[in-house]
Every structure is written in C-alpha cells, then in structure tokens.
Design brief:
about 260 residues; alpha+beta; 2 domains; 3 helices; 12 strands; about 20% helix; about 40% strand
Length: about 260
C-alpha cells in the first residue's frame, strides 16, 4: 500500500504501480467480456468501466517533483488501441499503457508467436500485426515523436534456425519510417532485445491540432534450420501474470506552436 505521507511520495508510489493496476484491470475486463460475450453494448460498457477505473486510480500519480516536472500537465495518458488487424493480433489480444510523464508507452500482445519444423503448418511460420493507436488525455496542445523503440522477443531455435522480426511506424500523412529487420540465429533459447534510436534530425512529429493515430506494423517469422524434424519458435506474447516480451516506444514531446 502506498504511504499517505506527502502528495509527492504518494504519486511516486502510484506511478510505480501503474503496470500492476493495468494488469488487474485487464484481467477483470477480460472476465467481464467473457461473461457478456455476444452483447456488443455490454462489452463496450465493461471496457469503458475498466478505463474509467484506471484513470481514477492513477490520477494523482502524475504530480511531479519540482526538479523533474514533465512538459505535459493533466491526467495520466490512456493508450487507446483503435484497430488491431493481422494474423498475429486482434483487439481482444492486444493491450498497453502509457507512462504517466508522457515520455513513452508500452504495447503487449497475448498471442503473437510463430513456429517452424516438426509437424508445424506452413502458415504457422509467419504472423503480422497492424495497430492504430492514440495516447488519450493531456496532449491536445502538444505533439510527440517516437525517438526510441525497444522490441523484446522470446526464442527457442534449433541449430541453424532463424527468428526474424520486422517493424515500422508512422502517422498517416507523414513519411513512413523504414521497415527495420532484426534477426537472430540458433541454436539458442533466450529473450532478445532490439533497440533502435532515431536521430533528432529524423524525428517525425504528430501533426499539431489533429487527433492523429500512430500506425505500428510488425511481422514475425521463423525459418527452419538443419534439424527440420525439431520445432523452433519465436514469441512476442505477454502474460499478465508471469510477464514476458513487451514492446516499448519512447517519445520526444514538445508544445505545438
């Protein structure tokens, strides 16, 4: 439990618990959705209630210390995923949360994995996902750009097998970032992290005065190695109880002119 000493200490404590709160609400939301499956109106109410609860529980977490005041003042951001399409994701299996200082956000997938070898089907070897999302609350008079991405990937690769991840992002109407390719070769069993930083001169800013969504494209693939009778797999799937791979996007934020 957070100590009720000062507002600053309470905010710091709650800030550390944002992810935990999100996990709990996510599980509650999924239970609500399962119970009310088939009724779109009630499903919407369940999701909205969870979002409202998250906002209420974390509202005080954005009060900054004087030496580290964020550029954006307002309620903590909510990551609103508008669409999730592709063989590797759906709206029901995709989630995320924003940082309370508006300096970044995290995206997680619950069922984004590929495999090859053994009795795997050809369609199991490649999956893709296209997300459109928006950071809600507090950014009306600000703009932001993605300055750094960190992609996490779990692999179990047989000798000679490869795991390949591709990713890019863009705001509609702005130049699309280059599709980056990340690769690791087996034999290996580990979690890999791929980090990409954007030079300041190449930052692409969200258009001011518009509620523009950020589009994120990812692709995950496994290529069989020399031991074709053995299964190799790669996964970006996140478990809300045990943790796992997550994809983080760090932002540069500035006021609109």
């Amino acid at each position: 439990m957070c100590p009720l000493t000062t507002l600053g200490s309470l905010a710091t404590c709650l800030g550390k618990d944002l992810e935990f709160i999100f996990k709990v609400l996510r599980r509650l939301t999924k239970k609500s959705v399962n119970l009310l499956k088939g009724n779109r109106m009630y499903k919407g109410i369940a999701l909205s209630a969870a979002a409202t609860a998250l906002l209420a529980l974390t509202a005080t977490a954005v009060v900054p210390a004087a030496a580290a005041a964020p550029p954006v003042v307002g309620p903590p951001p909510l990551l609103d995923i508008k669409t999730a399409t592709g063989s590797g994701c759906t709206l029901d299996t995709t989630g995320g949360w924003g940082q309370s200082d508006y300096r970044g956000f995290t995206v997680v997938y619950e069922d984004y994995k590929v495999q090859a070898g053994g009795d795997s089907r050809p369609t199991d070897a490649r999956k893709n996902c296209r997300l459109s999302l928006e950071l809600v609350a507090g950014l009306a008079s600000y703009t932001y750009a993605v300055r750094r991405t960190t992609y996490h990937l779990d692999v179990e690769l047989q000798r000679g097998a490869q795991a390949i991840m591709k990713a890019n992002y863009h705001f509609p109407g702005t130049p699309q970032s280059e599709m980056k390719t990340y690769r690791t070769v087996g034999a290996s069993s580990d979690e890999f992290r791929f980090i990409e930083s954007v030079p300041t001169s190449e930052l692409v800013w969200r258009p001011c005065g518009e509620r523009t969504e950020l589009v994120i494209n990812t692709e995950l693939r496994v290529v069989k190695g020399s031991e074709r009778d053995k299964v190799s797999f790669a996964s970006m799937s996140y478990d809300y109880d045990a943790g796992g791979p997550r994809q983080t996007y760090e932002l540069e934020v500035k006021p609109c002119p």
